[in-house]
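In the laboratory, one determines a bound structure by crystallizing the protein with its ligand and collecting diffraction data. In a computational setting the workflow is compressed into a single prediction: the sequence and the ligand go in, and a structural description comes out. We illustrate the idea with thymidine-5'-diphosphate.
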Amino acid sequence: MSTDAVRFVTACRVCGSRRWQEVVSFGSVPLANGFVDAAEADAPEEAYPLEAVSCRECRLLSLTAVVDPHLLYRTYSYVTSDSETMARHMRTVVELCGERAALAGGGLVVELGSNTGDQLLYFREAGARVLGVDPARNLARVAEDRGVPTLPDYFDSATAREIAATHGKASLILGRHVFAHIDDVADVLAGARELLADHGLFTIEVPYAVDLVERLAFDTIYHEHLSYFLISTLDRLFARHGLRTVDVERLAVHGGSVLVSAGRADGPWRTHDRVRDLIAGERAAGYLSDGVYQEFGARVRRTCAELTRLVRGLVADGHRVAGYGASAKGTTLLNLCGLGPGELEFCTDTTPQKQGRLTPGTHVPVLAPQDVRRPPDYYLLLAWNYAEEIMRKETAFLEAGGGFIVPVPEPTVRTGAVAAR
Ligand code: TYD
Ligand code: ZN
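The predicted complex, in structure-token form:
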């Protein structure tokens, strides 16, 4: 690991405190989306420390190591999943946001990390003007080809000023599963505040730290995800940057997320009771003190050992096991649990950019679903956030006696009989 590729966090990016509680330490792990070309299988692979800590002042859950974003995002193999679950979710986001921000009249929606433009296409359908911002040039180009104007850039205060000057102020600035990837949140919030119209909303969708802990979604901890937020933490962060939390919705995507909106503190918006209730709930459930995080760490280690035992047991009994969905969280899971080609014959995935390559660190070959000649006896469900959709799609596999190993919150095997209920 070259030292300038990583910055180690000292002060909390939300509150500035340096008082941290250790939560989990996963050792050195390669980048979650760093799929390896088969020809490079023998070349040494870069790995970076993966460790989460909790700020004792504001309870931000943060990684200790920030990998240089140029390494993470220059060409990016993460493509928004072409799934029913995601399509439905994106329509819900348009409904939720459209209700609040007046978009149908041609209001401007700016999306950070707009990927291939899927979400913005839904907004355009609803009558909004749209502009994407995404530093992955390969993806920005795809979005442009689909008719979604996209700046191939990081969103920061400079980009925000440029957008305001050329496109006007925004009714909605949206960042779905991108805000938690940002180290310098202060500069992004300064930019958002400047670009927002008076009545505009800055809306982010981030994994909810409470869901992460409750559902033991430890595999969603990887280098891209620098922050895991409570609503209390976000509220404090927004206030520090001249924004007021307006509303929050809990959503099922990515193992439990929140869609949180904030307006300018000097604007017309007031805080909804839902926000206060969630903040009170976090305090009552102990999320503002050490105990919850300590216990989380212990549960992670237990679950991982259990999963490894289960998979190795199946293999030892002569069963064939493969991975389903070469997700980014699969990288954490496989590396952490020490599962690789010895246990998994292959890993199937619908993303063309991943097919024909090897999973990061563990080198399980990724196959297109249509290239799977003999389905295994068990699939380890690495894309468990799509469990229901995948089980529906794979009824033939289940009916033929196949099973799915769902790794979290505790390893369970689901077979045809269970899925059909
Ligand atoms: P994704 O949910 O995007 O999560 P992460 O952020 O952890 O990468 O990953 C899901 C992966 O699973 C993605 O690579 C696409 C793949 N996938 C399939 O192979 N088949 C499916 O039916 C679905 C829904 C996803
Ligand atoms: Zn803090």
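The pocket of thymidine-5'-diphosphate (ligand 1) is lined by residues 78, 81, 83, 325-329, 348-351, 383, 385-386, 389-390, 393 (CB under 6 Å). Keep in mind that any predicted model is a hypothesis to be tested, not a measurement.
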